[in-house]
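Supplementary Text 2. Reproducibility record for the structural model of the 71-residue chain.

All settings were left at their defaults, and a single model was retained for analysis rather than an ensemble. We include the record here because the model underlies the residue-level annotations in Supplementary Table 4.
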Amino acid sequence: AAGGCNVTLNSGANISQAANSVASGGTVCLNPGTYQWNGGSWATVDKQSMTTITPAPGVSKSVVSIEWAQL
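Retained model, structure tokens:
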């Protein structure tokens, strides 16, 4: 995968769903935009090793925003 990303998301995508879909130890990369952590439902991620969520290669942290959508 590009730049060590197992999956790369675009603005509006569900981060918790992506984190659950990658293998333990995987990396979820984010393109510029705003993301919700749980997408309107409770989200639990249970992995054997850390899953990394990071801006995609070449993307500045300043153009990525993660919002917590609390029910």
